[in-house]
Amino acid sequence: MEQSSEQCSAGIIVIGDEILRGHVVDVNSQYLCRQLWNLGIDVRKVVVVGDSVSAIEAEVRLFSQSFTHVFTCGGIGPTHDDVTLEAIANAFDEQLCNHDELLSLFSAGDLESCRKMAKVPTSTKLCYPPSWPIATHGEATEEVSTTGSSRDSSDSAGSASVNVSAPVAYPALRIHNVFALPGVPVFLKEGFRGIKSLLRSSAGEFHLFEVSVQRPEAELASTLSTVQNDILPNVQLGSYPQFEEDGSQKCVVLRLESVHREKLNKARQLLLHHLCETSILGTSVRRSSARTPSISESSDPGIMSQSILDHERAALARSDHLSVDKVIHLAGSPHASHFSKVIANALCIIEEAMNRYGSGGLCLCFNGGKDCTVLLHLLSIVRHRQLHQQSSPTPIGSGGSGSSGGSASTHSSSNQLVALYIRSNDPFPEVEVFIQESTEKYTLELLTFEGSYKDALAWQLKSHPHIKAMLMGTRRTDPYAADLSPFVMTDKDWPQIMRVNPILDFSYSDVWRFLRDLNVSYCSLYDQGYTSLGGRSTTKPNPALHVENQDGRQSAHLPAYLLSNGDRERDGRVKRKTPVT
User: Fold this and answer.
1) pLDDT tens string 216-267
2) pTM value?
3) HEC secondary structure over 307-367
4) CA 513, 518, 524, 530: dihedral to nearest 10 degrees?
5) How far is CA 7 from CA 235, 302, 433, in A?
6) What does the alpha-carbon distance between residue 73 and residue 171 come to, in Å, rounded to a whole number?
7) Cβ atoms of 340 and 518 closer than 8 Å
8) Which CATH architecture has domain 207-287?
9) How far apart are CA 190 and CA 192, in angstroms?
10) From CA 112, how far away is CA 171, in angstroms rounded?
11) Domain 319-508 = CATH 3.40.190.290
């Protein structure tokens, strides 16, 4: 595939004799490839090498000259076969030196082990994940230092020192364009969080189109060759057969990918032209969530320290993301507050929808906004309860109609919740990042459609006929929603599907109380003063949250949850001009 002149490239070096001998399965390269694709970074090569200084050195030297970013996985522990850092130092003609800050992080352990793990190449910078606590004392250190006190904390922008008394893992190490990560998957993922913002600032983006076809792959070979010859080198075409457990072919997934959206669209039209319409099972369109500005690039001065916001959000993400017991307690509260009632009512409506259509017959309309995030969390809790407490027939909360036609087991063979993302023409990168993160966090099967809501429903009904109802994050304060009921069919001139509205009676403050009290992650735009999200051209920070610094030269917006008047929720939406006729 032809690369954009701005496209970042990456190479991944997986290190460990245990990988080469098949004793341990490599999951780190798969994780990094997926994360880097989401950031718009093109992974060009992945290699696995043993615990050999010369072998690692040769690959690091080659990769660092060939790719924008290089990632090493493994070999930075305390034992004799952890030789990655020595090899990286050799590749850059540097010496290993004692890093005082690293030594402090591991001061509670064995002294010799600590010394080995704290000996790093002289140009090393530390990249702390956002989950590391921020100390309230200390000065910012220099970005590069040969004395072993360098720091590169992407999420705190170097504005505070790390409290070294409570480390949670080994930080990622940055040596020139090489990021050295631990080999233990949980520590690697945490370390990658510390460098994610550094990577976003220079990433491009990928555009992807997939179509599922119910034809034998051999019958498609000639057609695919014809299409491929017409679209190279701008677009890449891949064919991936899917099989049932008995070995029979279920379908073939054809995938078009390009860094050029317009060229991908032309290739998509060409491919669909060559395919028999009756053999198409479904299609999806999506793109990598790139071009998200790093915190150090942000030009919006925060009324609240951005680093504190990020660490607060990281703490929320690290908690039990469902908080099932807390939600159930709120829903069944004997005090029967308004907040408890709306939660209990929403859970009962979701349970009734599950009973009517089964989890496989439901689809969540998800655009990354606060309301559908609340609904996604509630839906996940009901699903969690069904999967883990099937012996209890009692509905969550009070009330609810129980079963009303059909069984919850009718369509519940899959553990994945289905969500439909109707993508606007100019989406916020922050929204796309959040949707990708939510897809992984809640294990969603994400369907993406570009076009109108009406066309999206028509496409979904054709490509996924088993879906009978859409779960909507609609509230009564939304346009045309004041008189809606929890279950209502679409209008007669629309594709016919049931709309389920569990959170109709949530107020603006209820939404934010739910998200913040229950530690539910939400899109980062809400921390920048946006209160209602649409496309970039029609959405601005809410003027009701605008504040100015005392010198009057800089301005900022308070976070969305500080909006006291819910009636002004949509003040940030830009009204389209009506053409003169």
Assistant:
1) 899 999 999 999 998 888 899 999 998 876 788 878 889 999 988 889 889 9
2) 0.50
3) HHHHHHHHHHHHCCCCCHHHHHHHHCCCCCCHHHHHHHHHHHHHHHHHHHHCHHHEEEECC
4) -10
5) 15, 30, 18
6) 13
7) no
8) 2-Layer Sandwich (3.30)
9) 5
10) 19
11) no
